[in-house]
Amino acid sequence: MQSFPMAPNSAAPAASAPPATAYATAVLCWLLSAGVYIAAKWAGPEMPPWALCFWRLALACAILLPIVHRHHGDMLALLRSRAVEVILIGAIGLTLCQGMIYTGLKYTDATTAGIIMALSPVMTMVLARIVLGEPLGLWKALGAVLALVGMAVIVARGDLGALLRLQLSVGELWIVGSALCWGLYTVLLRRAKFGIELLPLVVLLLGAGALAALPFYLGELYAGQRSALHADGIWALAYVAGPGGALMYYLYNRSVETLGAGRASMLLYLQTVFVAILAYLILGESLHDYDMTGAAFIVAGLVLANAIKPRRAPEAAAAK
């Protein structure tokens, strides 16, 4: 999440079988990411959503900035030449994505939010077709349809007639918007090809996201929505900025280096499982029937879109 790690520009898979520690690093990354949903839900009564968004991004950027000191020259050069692109992509993928999640969590539970966010890879495929012209294919298209059906089931809370009556859950719609922003962010980042290493790029995007979140935060203050942090809120903010922010992004960068971008990104689906487990243990949430039904459609869609590969034409296979 979003609390999501950054999607890499590109990274080649590791040449040999990755060690078990590489997978452990990736699993820990997604566990920390799942914890952000819990912390955001926990801090909700004490901290408005855009305040949480701004401070998480700003503090995570401040923590990681000294770690990438050797890349400061490249980062400054990128800002001089393409600052508008960096700010725009950071605003979509970090500011809007996270702010929408935190807003949605005011109205829905963390478990449902985690399931809906599993839609983001499917949305990325569809947006890649629209923005980049990447082929979608029959199985990916069918997978996208199944996943969208699952989303509709969850948003309508099992009452599909509510879709026709437009009686939809506000919280779930915010989370769907967040998943859409994440998919668009991933596609735009892929197209941008900024050409610097992943972790320094993450730091730049965190700073850009914080800058873009500042007007929303100031708007909350102007409207009288101020933080009233007590112990719960302080611990939650410390978590989303530290272990669930800076450390999570750092671990994701390490997992991409050792596993390759494809393997590291596929493990994202662990986040949904971890969110459900943590929400049950810490928040006392339980899965609803519509969550289970919607999740089944989403998983089926992901399998169709990712596991089933189209057959190559005989000429193409022979040429290879």
Describe this structure in words.
The chain has 320 residues and is mainly α. Helix content is 74%, strand content 0%. The protein has one domain (20-309). Helix 2 runs antiparallel to helix 9 (198-222), helix 3 (72-104) packs antiparallel against helix 8 (170-192) and helix 4 (110-117) packs parallel to helix 13 (289-306).
Q: Tags for this entry?
A:
globular; 14 helices; mainly alpha; disordered N terminus; disordered C terminus; 320 residues
Question: What's the helix and strand layout?
Answer:
Blueprint: H1 20-43, H2 49-64, H3 72-104, H4 110-117, H5 120-132, H6 138-155, H7 161-165, H8 170-192, H9 198-222, H10 231-259, H11 261-266, H12 270-283, H13 289-306, H14 314-319
Query: How many domains?
Result: 1
The biggest beta sheet reads: none
Count of helix runs: 14
Distance between the termini: 39 Å
Quick rundown:
The protein is mainly alpha-helical and 320 residues long. It has helices at 20-43, 49-64, 72-104, 110-117, 120-132, 138-155, 161-165, 170-192, 198-222, 231-259, 261-266, 270-283, 289-306, 314-319.
